[in-house]
Amino acid sequence: MSIDPTQDYFTLFGLPRQYALDESVLEAAWHELQSQVHPDRYAHLPDVDKRRSMQWATRVNEGFRTLKKPLARAQYLLELAGVDTALETNTVMSPEFLMEQMEWREAVEEARAAGEVDELEQLHHRLQTHAREVRSDLALQLDEAHDYTAAADTVRRLMFIDKLQQEIDEALLALEE
User: So what's the architecture of 9-68 in CATH?
Assistant: First the structure.
């Protein structure tokens, strides 16, 4: 195993350090790395080599999970740039965004209470479209403008959107039962 433990996940997978990435290239790199470090390849070696293989397999899997998810990838890029997103302490959001969130949540709650599956599915679709637009903005902020302050704000917004998406998914599941 010749993997450098100081490598960031992008370097580990042979990818450029940017938000926009080709997921098929990431997945192919993950499969290649897994084939190199999988513990089964080292089962016949001493315990120290087995442990090292397990550590590397874990690191490769953690890297893959981080880079595969857009929100986690953005947070990781900000971390690499030395930017603290202050997710737990910075809850300042624009009044427009907060109002939008309240409207979304009210619409979800009304549709859930009325058992309107079609309405929830429409909300789900609209929110997915909105999330794609926000992720597109995030790609511009991170990859082109290198505006990490704006990107940190967008990451916080995207967290709200992801949480709302989960609430819609849960509401749909509850109504299907």
Answer: Orthogonal Bundle (1.10)
Residue 85 corresponds to which tokens in the numbers above?
Answer: 């997103």
CATH 1.10.287.110: which residues of the chain?
9-68
Under a CB-based contact definition with an 8 Å cutoff, are residues 141 and 151 in contact? yes
Tell me the per-residue pLDDT of 106-141, one tens digit each, with 9 for 90 and over.
999 999 999 999 999 999 999 999 999 999 999 999
Give the whole-angstrom CA distance, residue 31 versus residue 45: 22
Query: For residues 106, 173, 156 and 71, what is the CA-based torsion angle, rounded to 10 degrees?
Result: -150
User: What 3-state class would DSSP assign to 36?
Assistant: helix
Output DSSP code: residue 141: I
Ranges of beta strands (E only) in 25-160 are none
Distance between CA atoms of 176 and 66, rounded to whole angstroms? 31
Backbone angles phi, psi at 89, to 5 degrees: -110, -25
